Amino acid sequence: PEKAKATLALAARVGQLLDDIEIFTVISETKSLSQAAERLYMSRPGLSQKIANIEARYGTKLYVRTSTGVV
Predict the structure, then answer these.
(1) Which positions ≥6 away from 34 have C-beta within 8 Å?
(2) What is the mean pLDDT of the segment spanning 12-18?
(3) Dist CA 62 CA 68 (whole Å)
(4) Which pTM does this prediction carry?
(5) For burial by CB atoms within 10 Å, which of 2, 22, 48, 50 has the most?
């Protein structure tokens, strides 16, 4: 039972990491939060919240937001 719990916890962390990588990759490709949100089938505010959560989890800013997109 304990090993199963540990395995499930690890699987959840790996799943979250893969989601983080997908979000990072799509934003890097599109250079636009609006376009990335559309591609990820998310709302723009929802994507912004995901980015804030990822940045908090890793303790760093991932992007510089400009009036023309993200860098």
Answers:
(1) 44
(2) 93
(3) 16
(4) 0.83
(5) 50
